[in-house]
Amino acid sequence: MSKNSKIVIVSNRLPVHRVKRNRSYAWETSPGGLVAALKPILRQQPNTWVGWAGYPGAAPKPFEQEGIFNWPVPLSKDEVENFYEGFSNRTLWPLYHDAVRPPEYRRRWWWPYVHVNRRFAETAAEVVARNGTVWVHDYHLQLAPAMIRQLRPDVRIGFFLHIPFPPQELFAQMPWRRRVLEGLLGSDVIGFQTRLGAQNFVRLCRRFTDAHGTRDALEFNGQVTKAAAYPISVDVRRFEELAESPQVIRRCEEFREKLGASRKIILGVDRLDYTKGIDIRFRAYQELLRSGKASLDQCVLVQVAIPSRERVDAYRELKAVVEQYVGEINGEFAELGRPPVHYLHRSLSAEELVALYRAADVMLVTPFRDGMNLVAKEYVATKTDNSGVLVLSEFAGSAKELTSALLVNPHDIDGLESTLQTALNMPRSEQSRRMRAMRRVVKRNDVFNWANTFFEDLSA
Ligand code: ADQ
To answer: Using CA atoms, how far apart are residues 426 and 420, in angstroms rounded to an integer?
Structure first.
């Protein structure tokens, strides 16, 4: 713990969340690969994680949890509305995801974005040791690198963008485009999920800022920035171990029995987000049943959707659309006690999730645009027996690595319908050939490899 941290992670949310136990509150480490990947690195040295605790108002005092020193940054109610729900999730999120919903450019959201970025940057600059390292994460904090650089020119600064970086024609719309690019240029290394993201960024910097050079050495204000692809991944060993634990195997058998042992299970697992193409997969499934090319005797669809950003209108609308599809398809095709769609709108434990992955014959991952999509990699990591078919959108970052999946264009409903049919009928030998190839890819680059590679480049 200290104001002398060799390594500082900065992200919008802390890696912990507050839970109520009896009458008091306690902290629990949040699930997810990022914390797990960084833990081994952080524990070796004095560290601090700077982030928001997840509720508005005064921030709690800094505290340690499982070897990580958490430094909460406060956000007021107005800042949650303007910085987080507004600029981050109604301007940047849709703009960076191919504008699948129109991005909203509101001037009253911009200044809170600047102010909150400064608060995070000042906190990081205060706690980092001389010549230490700061690693900033994601689209909420794109101005922070340059702000930290100004306060602490002695430290190494890394930035990783978890979502796509958009092409010129889209990014150029943003009224604050130069400020955002210059904010990112404060970093020594900027990581993107794909090479395309890095290319888009470099082209935009050359066009809208005074930076010049290439991806390996983009020069701006006398400082050099490297922009490259660091595709994020999952903790493969953990998924394999879970998949083979007796408890998960038992649960998987229970699911299979409940859903009908002879039926193929089609699975979708997503945050309930309009970028994930959940609605489009319902349409394809509905049309497949209508055409008679698949029947209730042959297959069943399970969709698990984790509640997300429920205060933003577009998310509430999506929830209603999804629920309408579920009602419509079940109304049209269900037999008593045997619905064609099972819909769970909640978060599942890791064991339940892995049991479902293990049970699924076909995994549908159909985003319109996605930085990486870890669900696709988690499914592959779980399939230790090389069974199962992954249907994957070509617009997910993971499609660049998982080329042996059945790749689909999520805007093409006919294509998706026929791919789903192919997936349901794929012989075991072909499943195995494809799954083996994909498993090799995820094993070669797991989440620890991702974190280590980024740090190595940052210290080079
Ligand atoms: P997300 O948009 O959240 O992440 P994704 O990569 O799919 O998307 O990660 C979702 C995570 O939530 C997965 O680990 C999954 O297991 C978990 N999850 C989903 N539904 C769940 C449920 N019902 N119960 C429990 N867990 C559930 C952003 C970017 C992605 C990028 C990641 C990491 O949008 O493109 O891959 O960051 O960089």
So the answer is: 10
Both 172 and 257 in one domain: the answer is: no
- The DSSP line for 167-187 is -HHHHTT-TTHHHHHHHHTT-
* Mean pLDDT of the 262-288 span: 97
206 and 257 belong to one structural domain? no
Cβ count near 173 (within 10 Å): 12
353 lines ligand 1 (CB under 6 A): yes
Q: What is the pLDDT of residues 178-209, one digit of tens each?
A: 999 999 999 999 999 999 999 999 999 999 99
Q: Report the CATH number at residue 205.
A: 3.40.50.2000
| Residues 386-410, mean pLDDT to the nearest whole number | 98
Is-contact 435 243, C-beta < 8 A? Answer: no
Q: Are residues 209 and 309 in the same domain?
A: no
Q: How far is the CA of 368 from the centre of ligand 1 (A)?
A: 15
Mutation probe of ligand 1 site: the residue of 372, 382, 395, 401 with most atoms within 8 A of C-beta: 372
Is the CB–ligand 1 distance for residue 406 below 6 Å?
A: no
What confidence category does residue 2 fall into, taking pLDDT thresholds of 50, 70 and 90? Answer: low
pLDDT category, 426, cuts 50, 70, 90?
Answer: very high
Percentage with pLDDT > 70 across the chain: 100
Cα–Cα distance for residue pair 456/153, rounded to 1 Å: 20
Q: State if residue 347 touches ligand 1 by the CB under 6 angstroms criterion.
A: yes
Which of these is catalytic: 162, 342, 345, 411?
A: 162
Cα–Cα nearest to 147, from 333, 311, 10, 13: 10
Q: 396: Cβ below 6 Å to ligand 1?
A: no
Q: Say whether both 426 and 452 belong to one domain.
A: no
Q: Report CA(269)–ligand 1 centroid distance (Å).
A: 9
Same structural domain, 62 and 137: yes
* Domain limits for position 365: 236-444
88, 271, 366: residue to mutate for ligand 1 pocket, most atoms within 8 A of CB: 271
Q: Is 97 assigned a catalytic role?
A: no
Query: Are residues 160 and 55 both part of a single domain?
Result: yes
Q: How far apart are CA 449 and CA 232, in angstroms?
A: 9
pTM of the prediction? 0.97
Q: Are residues 187 and 325 in the same domain?
A: no
Give catalytic status of residue 216 as yes or no: no
Q: Is the pLDDT of residue 1 over 60?
A: no
